[in-house]
Design brief:
This protein is an alpha+beta fold. It has six helices and four strands, in the order E-H-E-H-H-E-H-H-H-E. Strands 2-1-4-3 form a four-stranded antiparallel beta sheet.
Amino acid sequence: MGFDIHGMNPIVRKGKKPEIPEGLYEGKKIDEKIVDEYYEKLWKFEEENVGAYFRNNVWWWRGLWDYVCDVCDDIISEDEWNEGHSNSGLTIDEDRAKKISKRLNQLIKDGNAQRYTDMWEARRKLAEKHNEGLKKGASDKDYKWEASYPLDIDNIKRFADFCLDSGGFQIC
């Protein structure tokens, strides 16, 4: 499972978002070459326009979202923290997205984000060590799930850049 975060009104710095081939999401048979070309153009657009789309798999998203909510608890409510851990469509408006970006970039610049990720990763590695020999999941009540959720500065920076250019975002 992944988390798709879509910019609601992203800044377009280069190119134009490609048109979706007719019938692509309606299950119609479409030439594979057309589909491949569409996705290549879409991925290029998203790479060149960082506010258009941000994606993390569940393992990387949970730690990132926890961090964002921890350091932005005056911007994001506890209910939004909970909702952000699902694909329910939580929306963060442009003003708050920019505040999140500004906060994250400041924490990166002053070294606080690195210290936080260092502590997170140290706890995660302890949990990994604890889990050695245990069965993953509910079958072993002693399993420490935090071992599964990495966090690093590059992911925080990518999300900060996305937030700045997103025009607000929706978690789907």
